[in-house]
C-alpha cells in the first residue's frame, strides 16, 4: 500500500521536527462511564414549528484504531438523526472525524449538542450564516453533561462547510484530539449541474498529527515554540486515517478538501504535474471552474476539485503532494495520499463550464467608495499575537469593532512585522484570517517589495475567486475583503485560524448593531 507510508523517523527528519513532546493523554482521560444530568442551556425552538432535521450530537472521549496495536485515545463527535431524512448525517467509517452533515439550503435544523468531555466545550458551525446564539462563541460554552440546543435555518449556498469546538484557549487541543466534522450543503442550482455524486463525491480531510510509541496523540511538545508558531504534526492523516489511499475508477470525481490542521499550510499538487481543476471554495461553487498548477490551502479552508481519472491507466497511481514553499511548515515535498486507478468504467462526463452565479457585492463601487477598516496582525508586547495591538476579550468590543446591520464594508488585513525583536517569527508566519457568520469576497492583495520572495512561492495557488470565510495573509501582505452584515445582530468573532494563535488570543469580537 503506497500512501503516506513514509516511516515516522523519515518524516521527523523530512520536516526537521524534534520528536520531544508531551502526550495528549495528559489532558485526555480514559473513557469514563458517568452519565451526568442533561441541562438545557437554551430553550427549545421558540417558533414551536418542528424543524426539518433534528440531530443529537455528542462530544465524547473514545478510542479509535489508527494503527495496528494499541488504539488511540481521541475526543470525537458522535451523531444521530432524531427526525428528518436518515442521510442528514453520513458517518465516515474508521475515523475519529464527526459525522458529515448532509443538508439542503432552506432546511431548518435543530442540533442538541451534549458535552461529555471532561471540560467545557461548544460547537461552532464554521462558514455558516447563523444567528449569534447558534454561532458557538466561546462565551456560550457548556460544562460536562450539559446540552446546548442550536436552532437555525440553512441559509448558505451549496458548499463544503465544517464544524469544530470553540472554547477559548482550548480550541487547538480539542480540535487536535479529533473534534471536527464536515457540514455539506446542497442546493437546487448545484444539484441541477449533475456533478459527480454518491460514491464519486468524496471528502478529503487533511490533518497533521504526531504520535508517541504507544500510538497516542502528542501535542504541544515544543512548548512556547508550538504556541508562537503553531503546532505542526510529523504525520499526515487523511479522513482520520494514517494509511489513506483512494481507490478510483476511470471517470471524473468531485473531491471536497478541508484543511483541518491546526496550523499547517499545504501547497497541493499532483505528482505528475496534472493541473488542478477547482470547482469551489469555502462558500461553494465558483462561477466557472478555474485551473491552477497548485493550490495553497490554509487551515480551515476548503476547496472542491473536479478530478478526472478517465485518461489514467488501470493499475497506475497518482499522488497528491504538498510542495515546498517559503513560510512556516513549507520545508519540503511530501505525499498526502495516492489515488489507485483500479477499475475501467469508461465514464466521461463533461466538466460544466458554468457552475453558479456569484451575486457580487458590487465590488468596484465598494472598493472606491469605502475606506477600509484595517486590522494589523503583529506580535504584541506580551509576546502574544494580536489584532490591532489587542488580544481576545470574552464579552467586549472596541468602538472600531462595531458594524451596522446591512452595511457593506471593506476590511484590510495587514500582516506586519513590528520590529520588537521578534522579527524572524513575524517574517516567516502567514496568518489565515477568518470572520464568523458570513462569507466574504477577496478583492485585492498587495505585497511589500522586500517580502515578495516568500509570497511568490505560494501566490499562484491562492483561489481568490468566489466566496470565502478564511483568507491566508502572507508576511508583508495586505489583503482587502468585502463583507456584508446581513440578517443578524450581536457578537461574532474574527480571528486567526492558526489554532495556536487563536488560543493565545489572536481573536476579537465584532458586533453587528441594528
Ligand atoms: Cu473555524 Cu472561529 O472558527
Ligand atoms: Cu468560524
Ligand atoms: Cu496567526
Describe the structure.
- There is one protein chain.
- This protein is 10% helix and 39% strand.
- The strands form six sheets. Strands 11, 12, 13, 15, 17, 18 and 20 form a seven-stranded mixed sheet that branches.
- The protein has eight helices and 32 strands.
- With 514 residues, the chain is mainly beta.
- It folds into three domains: 180 residues, Cupredoxins -  blue copper proteins (Immunoglobulin-like, Sandwich), CATH 2.60.40.420; 146 residues, Cupredoxins -  blue copper proteins (Immunoglobulin-like, Sandwich); 151 residues, Cupredoxins -  blue copper proteins (Immunoglobulin-like, Sandwich), CATH 2.60.40.420.
- A hairpin with a 5-residue loop joins β11 and β12.
- The relative contact order is 0.14.
- The radius of gyration is 22 Å and the shape is globular.
- Bound molecules: CU-O-CU linkage and copper (II) ion (2 copies).
- The site of CU-O-CU linkage has 10 residues, from β7 and β31.
Alpha-carbon Rg, integer: 22 Å
User: Judging from the principal axes of the Cα atoms, what is the shape?
Assistant: globular
Strand content: 35-45%
* Helix content, binned percent: under 10%
Q: What number is the mean pLDDT?
A: 89
CATH topology of the largest domain: Immunoglobulin-like
- Counting structural domains, the number is 3
Number of helices: 8
Count all strands and give the number: 32
